[in-house]
Amino acid sequence: GFQITSIRDVTPLAHNGCRPPKRRRV
């Protein structure tokens, strides 16, 4: 599904793609 809390810590690149993993909600 769409879990920002999980993806943002597990694999943020999977949802962002070309965007940096540490540039959304640090």
Description:
The protein is mainly alpha-helical. It has one domain. It has helices at 4-10, 12-16. It is globular and about 20 Å long. The termini are far apart. The mean pLDDT is 57.
Key terms for this structure?
26 residues; 0% strand; mainly alpha
Topology of helices and strands:
Layout: H1 4-10, H2 12-16
Can I get a quick summary?
The protein has 26 residues and is mostly helical. The chain has helices at residues 4-10, 12-16.
Ends distance: 21 Å
Overall 3D shape: globular
Report low-confidence residues grouped into runs of 5 or more: none
In terms of DSSP E residues, the strand content is under 5%
- Structural class category: mainly alpha
Helix residue percentage: 40-55%
Q: Could you state the order of secondary-structure elements as H and E?
A: HH
Whole-number mean pLDDT: 57
Count of separate DSSP helical elements: 2
Radius of gyration: 8 Å
Number of domains: 1
The biggest sheet amounts to: none
Q: Number of DSSP strands?
A: 0
